[in-house]
Specification:
- By secondary structure, the protein is an alpha+beta fold.
- The chain has a single domain, classed as Thrombin, subunit H (Beta Barrel).
- 31% of the residues are buried.
- About 7% of the residues have low confidence.
Amino acid sequence: MKCSRARKAVVVFGLAAAMLRAAPSPADEPTPVPARTVFEQNRESIVKVTGVAQIRISADRPGMNAPEREEKVRADGTIIDDRGLIVLSLSAIDPSRLIDGREVKSAEGPVKVGATATLNELEIILGDGTEIPATLVFKDEDLDLAFLRPKSDAPEAQGATFDPIDLAAAGEVLVGDSTVSVTRLEDLFNNAPAMMAGQVSAVIERPRLLFVAPNAVRGCPTFTLDGKLIGIGIIRHRATGVGQGSASPAIVPAGEIRKLVGQIPAG
């Protein structure tokens, strides 16, 4: 009886040892190489954009206009050609976009607010810290996109190297497909490049094609795992009532970005 129990114990121990040898160790587990590769290939294409927005606010009731105010702005942008053309989210550098059209409460009832902004002192900050004065050359308010170009006569632009994403290599995606967004952290982390993994959660086809993914970042590119560009992150905003509004991230497809680039005046 005791020998039988001993033999069973040996068999069980042997099976357990075999299973442990067969189980992969953490070092043997596959690493997310595709996502890491996409990040490494595009990390230097993300820049910071800074500026000053001169904001003017008006109201549809006499005597309720607010005084002008200045607001410093800072946003992420993406280099899209070797001359330093940058695409970014318009609302990230123009705060009036999220104010215009809102309704606020007053003693006399709801008041509709209008807002506009003038952008000054725009600068592009490259990954190595180089700061280059820039000019707003084009914008699409409906798609929440702005395009900046470095001032060619600025001393800082002379000899600067720009590392653009491949705008022509567009990828097609469906709901559930894995994605990688490349961005930059804030000053607290020295503007270090970073990546965010996720997946497409919706494809919006009307009125314009947009993709929805939880890892979309305003002004930053989102890619497929094989490195094809899906598009650039924006914010879709809508005023829904007195003191209310909705804002959600989305991705403008790469094809739309290319069409807009074609409308930018030469030089």
